[in-house]
Amino acid sequence: MNYLSPSILAADFSKLDAEISAATDAGANWIHLDVMDGAFVPNISFGIPVIKSLRKVTDALFDVHLMINEPIRYIEAFADAGADLITIHYEACEDVVATVDAIHALGKKAGVAISPDTDVAVVKELIPQCEMILIMSVYPGFGGQKYIEATYEKIEAVRGMMIEASKPNMYLEVDGGIDSNNIDKVKDAGANVFVAGSSVFRGDIGANVRELYAIIG
Ligand code: DX5
Ligand code: ZN
Predict the structure, then answer these.
(1) Which of 175, 179, 188, 204 is catalytic?
(2) How far apart are CA 76 and CA 176, in angstroms?
(3) How far is C-alpha 36 from the geometric centre of its chain's CA atoms?
(4) Most-buried pick from 73, 124, 127, 200 (CB within 10 A)?
(5) Rounded CA gap, 133 and 170, in Å?
(6) Pocket perturbation via mutation, ligand 1, pick of 34, 63, 173, 180 by most ligand atoms within 8 A of CB
(7) Which residues of the chain, if any, have pLDDT below 50?
(8) Ligand 2 is a single-atom ion; what residues have CB below 5 A from it?
(9) Using one digit for the tens of pLDDT, what is the confidence trace for 81-115?
(10) Which ligand has the minimum distance to the alpha carbon of residue 65?
(11) How far apart are CA 103 and CA 178, in angstroms?
(12) Does the pTM exceed 0.90?
């Protein structure tokens, strides 16, 4: 199964309910929520109260991407707010496995993200521990950036590690700069969860979701 995870960072924040509905009505069943703390990344987005409010308006899977330092401090708050899958950054945790364990202890799925400068080899021992690996295809912090071409090789490498670890269908999410021109190549490299912000929320949201889903199947 392949999933599109529209990132609301690119949505109109004055009408999040309507914009999320436009995406889910067109078939999106994941929503990507980018949380930024102004410290791990040079930007601040939104946090716990916004996620809690949005939880009331949709049943879509909440794919919460925490771009915050030492996220272990806030796992419980995000779980309570309605996150279904919580992704933390490898670079932001003193103890990645303890953070993943904290997510599991609250009955949520756990993902581990790596930023573009992190050696892909670090995920090998994390694959048995979690449900998703997120490969950043831009530097985290902002929507609307250009996809980094060197990401394809990393996706192939991580899918290979997943196969080797007997988790061939594990979630492998790619985030940043994905659009209708490159999503097929991201898929061919081995991704099965595709974050799309600008390419979903700029223009006709429903048509954009349908176009991207038509490619990923
Ligand atoms: C970047 C965020 C991304 C971003 C994607 O820090 O993690 O999820 O919103 O936006 P686009 O698709 O516009 O690159
Ligand atoms: Zn993200």
Answers:
(1) 175
(2) 27
(3) 13
(4) 200
(5) 8
(6) 34
(7) none
(8) 34, 65, 175
(9) 999 999 999 999 999 999 999 999 999 999 999 99
(10) 2
(11) 27
(12) yes
Write the residue with the smallest CA distance to atom 12 of ligand 1. Answer: 197
Say which of 12, 17, 34, 59 is annotated catalytic. Answer: 34
How many C-beta atoms surround the C-beta of residue 177 within 10 A? 24
Token pair for 130: 């979690």
Residue 211: both structure tokens together: 């176009």
**Residues 76-110: b if buried by 16+ CB within 10 A, e if exposed:** eebbebbbbbbbbbbbbbeebeebbebbeeeebbb
Which residue has 């990923």 as its token pair?
A: 216
Whether 117 is catalytic: no
Distance CA 198, CA 14 (A): 16
CA angle, residues 69, 28, 168, in degrees to nearest 5? 70
What distance in angstroms lies between residue 76's CA and the mean position of ligand 2's atoms? 20
User: What does the chain come to in residues?
Assistant: 217
Taking the CA of 40 as reference, the closest ligand is 1
